[in-house]
């Protein structure tokens, strides 16, 4: 084979490589342009607005020190409300998400039409932010932890439902097929073949959602759903920055403790031993 023939064999590959490079370059240029336009629209390049920002933040930080814990006896109930809202909202969401995920999963659901309908419903639940759900439930059931629990539960149903049915669809089908061949019902197959395989991923998703919900429960306090968030906002409104910094430190300790607990539970459920 001559050198000219060898070169002619590689020419199509070289042309394809150049086309791919051009496509990748065009995609990178479009992504850069879109990012630049988004930053410009958001005001990121309005540099005069940054002039006093650092000085203001330093002054705010100085006014927040040292943290004032003098009212700590009055923070127990809001803290308990935040914990209860996060835990109960997660339990409600996980409890509703599991049967809905079983109906939505292609390998378990009774029909494709029902599965698609459930997926559409889950998408609608998670498309609406938890804060908006909170406003709706505050109007429906009044102030306090209850609307926060319902808001977190509904939004968690949408999020966990998607994660659950994806975990169920990735299990090994062989154990379920063996049970089916021995006349086991669909519910029995789900209980003894599908659920045990998917359980570690379901637990992992639920723990992650619990960590998220405890932080979100604080935010829901801003709209009257109780909890620690209302105490923080009230302290800021009264210019009690030292008290606000103490509340934020307590919240930080709470979230850190929950993250550590979540890591321990993950090791317990996801460990191969």
UniProtKB/TrEMBL annotation:
Pfam families: BPD_transp_1. It is a multi-pass membrane protein. InterPro entries: MetI-like (IPR000515), MetI-like_sf (IPR035906), PhnE/PtxC (IPR005769). The chain crosses the membrane at residues 25-44, 83-109, 130-154, 216-239, 245-265. One of its GO terms (cellular component) is plasma membrane. PROSITE patterns: ABC_TM1. Keywords: Cell membrane, Membrane, Transmembrane, Transmembrane helix, Transport. Residues 79-262 form the ABC transmembrane type-1 domain. SUPFAM superfamilies: MetI-like. GO terms for molecular function: ABC-type phosphonate transporter activity. NCBIfam families: PhnE. Belongs to the binding-protein-dependent transport system permease family. This is Phosphonate ABC transporter, permease protein PhnE.
């Amino acid at each position: 084979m001559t050198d000219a023939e060898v070169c002619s064999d590689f020419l199509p590959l070289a042309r394809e490589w150049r086309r791919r490079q051009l496509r990748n370059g065009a995609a990178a240029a479009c992504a850069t342009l879109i990012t630049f336009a988004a930053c410009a629209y958001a005001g990121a390049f309005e540099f005069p607005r940054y002039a006093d920002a650092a000085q203001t933040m330093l002054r705010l930080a100085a006014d927040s020190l040292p943290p004032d814990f003098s009212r700590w006896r009055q923070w127990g109930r809001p803290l308990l409300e935040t914990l209860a809202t996060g835990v109960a909202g997660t339990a409600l969401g996980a409890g509703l998400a599991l049967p809905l995920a079983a109906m939505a999963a292609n390998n378990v659901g009774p029909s494709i039409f029902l599965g698609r309908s459930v997926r559409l419903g889950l998408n609608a639940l998670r498309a609406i932010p938890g804060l908006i759900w909170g406003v709706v439930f505050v109007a429906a059931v009044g102030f306090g932890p209850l609307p926060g629990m319902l808001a977190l539960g509904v939004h968690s149903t949408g999020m966990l439902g998607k994660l659950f049915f994806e975990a169920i669809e990735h299990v090994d089908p062989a154990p379920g097929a063996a049970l089916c061949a021995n006349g086991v019902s669909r519910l029995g197959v789900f209980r003894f073949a599908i659920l045990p395989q998917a359980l570690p991923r379901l637990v992992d998703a639920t723990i992650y959602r619990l960590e998220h919900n405890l932080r979100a429960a604080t935010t829901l306090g801003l709209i009257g759903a109780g909890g620690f968030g209302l105490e923080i906002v009230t302290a800021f409104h009264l210019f009690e920055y030292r008290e606000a910094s103490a509340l934020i430190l307590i919240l930080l300790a709470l979230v850190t403790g929950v993250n550590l607990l979540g890591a321990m539970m993950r090791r317990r459920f996801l460990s191969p031993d």
